[in-house]
Amino acid sequence: MKHPVIAAAVLLAGCLGAFPQTTRTLVVTGGHTYDPSFYILFEGDSRIKAIVDPHPMPYRREMRKGYDVLVLYDSMQEISETERKNLVNFLEAGKGLVILHHALVDYCNWEWWWKEVMGGRWIQTDDKPPRWKTTWKHDVNMAVHPVGKHPVTEGVGTLHITDETYKGMWLSPDNTVLMRTDEPTSDGPVVWISPYRKSRVVAIQLGHDRMAHYHPGYQRLVKNAILWAGGQE
Ligand SMILES: [Zn+2]
Protein backbone atom coordinates (compact mmCIF):
# COMPACT_ATOMS: atom_id res chain seq x y z
CA MET A 1 0.00 0.00 0.00
CA LYS A 2 2.52 2.56 -1.19
CA HIS A 3 0.16 4.96 -2.96
CA PRO A 4 -0.53 7.89 -0.60
CA VAL A 5 -4.20 8.33 -1.70
CA ILE A 6 -4.96 4.64 -1.13
CA ALA A 7 -3.11 4.72 2.19
CA ALA A 8 -5.12 7.77 3.29
CA ALA A 9 -8.39 6.13 2.20
CA VAL A 10 -7.57 2.97 4.14
CA LEU A 11 -6.61 5.01 7.20
CA LEU A 12 -9.86 7.00 6.98
CA ALA A 13 -11.93 3.83 6.51
CA GLY A 14 -10.23 2.35 9.58
CA CYS A 15 -10.95 5.47 11.63
CA LEU A 16 -14.59 5.41 10.56
CA GLY A 17 -14.88 1.78 11.60
CA ALA A 18 -15.38 0.50 8.03
CA PHE A 19 -13.26 -2.46 9.05
CA PRO A 20 -11.98 -3.33 12.49
CA GLN A 21 -8.52 -2.65 13.78
CA THR A 22 -6.31 -5.42 15.00
CA THR A 23 -6.07 -6.19 18.70
CA ARG A 24 -2.41 -6.96 19.32
CA THR A 25 -2.44 -9.73 21.89
CA LEU A 26 0.38 -11.13 24.00
CA VAL A 27 -0.40 -14.64 25.25
CA VAL A 28 1.67 -15.61 28.27
CA THR A 29 2.22 -19.28 29.14
CA GLY A 30 4.63 -21.17 31.40
CA GLY A 31 4.61 -22.81 34.82
CA HIS A 32 1.76 -25.16 33.92
CA THR A 33 1.30 -27.81 31.22
CA TYR A 34 -1.51 -27.43 28.71
CA ASP A 35 -3.06 -29.03 25.70
CA PRO A 36 -1.72 -27.53 22.42
CA SER A 37 -5.36 -27.29 21.27
CA PHE A 38 -5.22 -24.04 23.30
CA TYR A 39 -3.76 -22.23 20.28
CA ILE A 40 -6.98 -22.65 18.30
CA LEU A 41 -8.45 -19.88 20.47
CA PHE A 42 -6.33 -17.32 18.62
CA GLU A 43 -6.99 -18.51 15.07
CA GLY A 44 -9.58 -17.59 12.50
CA ASP A 45 -10.33 -14.01 13.55
CA SER A 46 -8.56 -11.27 11.63
CA ARG A 47 -9.31 -8.80 14.43
CA ILE A 48 -6.95 -10.65 16.80
CA LYS A 49 -3.22 -10.92 16.18
CA ALA A 50 -1.70 -13.05 18.92
CA ILE A 51 1.86 -13.90 19.85
CA VAL A 52 2.57 -16.61 22.42
CA ASP A 53 5.52 -15.94 24.74
CA PRO A 54 6.32 -18.32 27.61
CA HIS A 55 8.01 -17.35 30.87
CA PRO A 56 10.62 -16.20 31.63
CA MET A 57 10.60 -13.85 28.61
CA PRO A 58 7.32 -11.89 28.34
CA TYR A 59 7.72 -9.29 31.11
CA ARG A 60 11.42 -8.68 30.69
CA ARG A 61 10.71 -5.85 28.31
CA GLU A 62 8.35 -2.95 28.14
CA MET A 63 5.00 -4.18 26.71
CA ARG A 64 2.88 -1.05 26.40
CA LYS A 65 3.92 -0.06 22.89
CA GLY A 66 3.65 -3.50 21.32
CA TYR A 67 0.39 -4.88 22.70
CA ASP A 68 -3.20 -3.96 23.45
CA VAL A 69 -4.19 -7.02 25.48
CA LEU A 70 -2.44 -9.54 27.67
CA VAL A 71 -3.91 -13.06 27.86
CA LEU A 72 -2.64 -15.16 30.76
CA TYR A 73 -2.55 -18.95 30.64
CA ASP A 74 0.49 -19.21 32.87
CA SER A 75 0.89 -20.26 36.48
CA MET A 76 3.43 -18.14 38.31
CA GLN A 77 4.08 -17.02 41.89
CA GLU A 78 7.37 -15.11 41.82
CA ILE A 79 8.67 -12.72 39.19
CA SER A 80 11.46 -10.15 39.39
CA GLU A 81 11.00 -6.48 40.28
CA THR A 82 11.52 -5.50 36.64
CA GLU A 83 8.91 -7.99 35.46
CA ARG A 84 6.43 -6.75 38.06
CA LYS A 85 7.04 -3.17 37.03
CA ASN A 86 6.43 -3.92 33.35
CA LEU A 87 3.24 -5.79 34.21
CA VAL A 88 1.97 -2.98 36.46
CA ASN A 89 2.86 -0.34 33.85
CA PHE A 90 0.95 -2.25 31.19
CA LEU A 91 -2.24 -2.32 33.27
CA GLU A 92 -1.91 1.24 34.56
CA ALA A 93 -1.66 2.39 30.95
CA GLY A 94 -5.20 1.08 30.43
CA LYS A 95 -4.26 -2.00 28.43
CA GLY A 96 -6.58 -5.01 28.59
CA LEU A 97 -6.16 -8.26 30.50
CA VAL A 98 -7.82 -11.65 30.04
CA ILE A 99 -7.08 -14.29 32.69
CA LEU A 100 -7.76 -17.88 31.67
CA HIS A 101 -8.24 -20.91 33.89
CA HIS A 102 -5.04 -21.91 35.78
CA ALA A 103 -3.75 -18.34 35.53
CA LEU A 104 -6.24 -17.68 38.35
CA VAL A 105 -3.61 -19.33 40.57
CA ASP A 106 -1.05 -16.59 39.74
CA TYR A 107 0.58 -14.46 42.47
CA CYS A 108 -1.43 -15.70 45.47
CA ASN A 109 0.67 -13.51 47.80
CA TRP A 110 0.65 -10.29 45.73
CA GLU A 111 -2.35 -8.56 47.28
CA TRP A 112 -2.71 -5.82 44.67
CA TRP A 113 -2.83 -8.52 42.03
CA TRP A 114 -5.44 -10.83 43.51
CA LYS A 115 -7.60 -8.27 45.27
CA GLU A 116 -7.75 -5.46 42.73
CA VAL A 117 -6.61 -6.79 39.38
CA MET A 118 -8.00 -10.31 39.38
CA GLY A 119 -10.87 -10.05 41.86
CA GLY A 120 -10.08 -13.59 43.01
CA ARG A 121 -7.51 -15.45 45.05
CA TRP A 122 -6.50 -19.06 44.98
CA ILE A 123 -6.17 -20.20 48.62
CA GLN A 124 -3.08 -22.43 48.78
CA THR A 125 -3.03 -23.60 52.41
CA ASP A 126 -5.56 -23.79 55.22
CA ASP A 127 -3.08 -23.26 58.08
CA LYS A 128 -3.88 -19.55 58.27
CA PRO A 129 -7.01 -17.45 57.62
CA PRO A 130 -9.35 -17.93 55.84
CA ARG A 131 -8.58 -21.56 56.87
CA TRP A 132 -9.85 -23.29 53.83
CA LYS A 133 -8.14 -24.43 50.63
CA THR A 134 -9.28 -24.04 47.06
CA THR A 135 -10.21 -27.38 45.49
CA TRP A 136 -10.59 -28.49 41.89
CA LYS A 137 -12.37 -31.24 40.00
CA HIS A 138 -11.70 -32.47 36.46
CA ASP A 139 -14.15 -33.54 33.76
CA VAL A 140 -17.29 -32.01 35.22
CA ASN A 141 -20.32 -31.79 32.94
CA MET A 142 -22.06 -28.51 33.60
CA ALA A 143 -24.25 -25.78 32.24
CA VAL A 144 -22.90 -22.22 32.44
CA HIS A 145 -25.38 -19.40 32.03
CA PRO A 146 -24.84 -15.76 31.02
CA VAL A 147 -25.83 -13.20 33.66
CA GLY A 148 -27.40 -10.18 31.97
CA LYS A 149 -26.18 -8.80 28.66
CA HIS A 150 -22.58 -7.85 27.98
CA PRO A 151 -20.27 -7.69 24.91
CA VAL A 152 -18.12 -10.45 26.47
CA THR A 153 -21.01 -12.93 26.43
CA GLU A 154 -22.56 -11.78 23.13
CA GLY A 155 -23.47 -14.82 21.03
CA VAL A 156 -22.20 -17.29 23.65
CA GLY A 157 -25.52 -18.39 25.18
CA THR A 158 -25.67 -21.16 27.74
CA LEU A 159 -22.53 -23.28 27.59
CA HIS A 160 -22.93 -27.03 28.01
CA ILE A 161 -19.35 -27.96 28.65
CA THR A 162 -17.12 -30.61 30.22
CA ASP A 163 -14.36 -28.80 32.10
CA GLU A 164 -12.51 -28.41 35.39
CA THR A 165 -14.22 -26.58 38.25
CA TYR A 166 -12.66 -24.60 41.11
CA LYS A 167 -14.26 -24.21 44.52
CA GLY A 168 -13.22 -22.20 47.54
CA MET A 169 -11.48 -19.29 45.84
CA TRP A 170 -11.83 -15.93 47.50
CA LEU A 171 -13.90 -13.86 45.06
CA SER A 172 -14.23 -10.10 45.32
CA PRO A 173 -17.71 -8.80 46.15
CA ASP A 174 -16.92 -5.98 43.70
CA ASN A 175 -16.66 -8.27 40.67
CA THR A 176 -19.27 -8.02 37.92
CA VAL A 177 -20.27 -11.63 37.25
CA LEU A 178 -20.98 -12.33 33.56
CA MET A 179 -21.50 -16.13 33.63
CA ARG A 180 -22.23 -18.59 36.38
CA THR A 181 -23.08 -22.23 37.02
CA ASP A 182 -25.13 -24.06 39.64
CA GLU A 183 -22.67 -26.99 39.55
CA PRO A 184 -21.95 -27.78 43.25
CA THR A 185 -18.20 -28.38 42.74
CA SER A 186 -17.84 -24.79 41.46
CA ASP A 187 -17.90 -21.48 43.29
CA GLY A 188 -20.65 -20.42 40.88
CA PRO A 189 -19.17 -17.36 39.13
CA VAL A 190 -17.00 -18.55 36.23
CA VAL A 191 -16.68 -15.38 34.13
CA TRP A 192 -16.33 -11.96 35.72
CA ILE A 193 -15.01 -8.44 35.29
CA SER A 194 -12.72 -7.50 38.15
CA PRO A 195 -12.95 -4.33 40.29
CA TYR A 196 -9.83 -2.88 38.61
CA ARG A 197 -10.78 0.37 36.88
CA LYS A 198 -7.64 1.51 35.09
CA SER A 199 -7.99 -1.19 32.46
CA ARG A 200 -10.52 -3.80 31.40
CA VAL A 201 -9.95 -7.15 33.10
CA VAL A 202 -11.92 -10.31 32.29
CA ALA A 203 -11.41 -13.54 34.24
CA ILE A 204 -12.60 -16.83 32.73
CA GLN A 205 -12.34 -19.82 35.05
CA LEU A 206 -13.09 -22.32 32.27
CA GLY A 207 -10.48 -23.69 29.87
CA HIS A 208 -8.64 -26.74 31.21
CA ASP A 209 -8.21 -28.77 28.03
CA ARG A 210 -9.35 -29.52 24.50
CA MET A 211 -12.95 -30.08 25.56
CA ALA A 212 -13.08 -26.36 26.32
CA HIS A 213 -10.64 -25.21 23.59
CA TYR A 214 -12.66 -26.89 20.83
CA HIS A 215 -16.03 -25.73 22.20
CA PRO A 216 -17.40 -23.06 19.82
CA GLY A 217 -19.08 -21.22 22.70
CA TYR A 218 -15.83 -21.11 24.66
CA GLN A 219 -13.93 -19.91 21.59
CA ARG A 220 -16.47 -17.12 21.13
CA LEU A 221 -16.23 -16.18 24.81
CA VAL A 222 -12.43 -15.87 24.74
CA LYS A 223 -12.45 -13.88 21.49
CA ASN A 224 -15.14 -11.54 22.82
CA ALA A 225 -13.14 -11.07 26.02
CA ILE A 226 -9.97 -10.17 24.09
CA LEU A 227 -11.79 -7.69 21.86
CA TRP A 228 -13.65 -6.08 24.77
CA ALA A 229 -10.53 -5.89 26.96
CA GLY A 230 -8.74 -4.23 24.05
CA GLY A 231 -11.49 -1.64 23.68
CA GLN A 232 -13.20 -3.19 20.62
CA GLU A 233 -16.66 -4.30 21.57
ZN1 LIG B 1 -6.81 -27.10 34.74
Describe the structure.
Strand 3, helix 2 and strand 4 form a beta-alpha-beta unit. This protein has 233 residues and is an alpha/beta fold. The strands form 2 sheets. A 9-stranded mixed β-sheet has the order 2-1-3-4-11-10-9-6-7, with helices on one face. It is built from 5 helices and 11 strands. The chain has a single domain, classed as Class I glutamine amidotransferase (GATase) domain (Rossmann fold), CATH 3.40.50.880. The chain binds zinc ion (ZN).
Put the structure in a nutshell.
With 233 residues, the protein is α/β, with parallel strands linked by helices.
What fold name stands as the CATH topology?
A: Rossmann fold
Strand tally, please? 11
Mean pLDDT: 92
CATH superfamily: Class I glutamine amidotransferase (GATase) domain
Bound molecules: zinc ion
The CATH class? Alpha Beta
**In total, how many domains does the architecture comprise?**
1
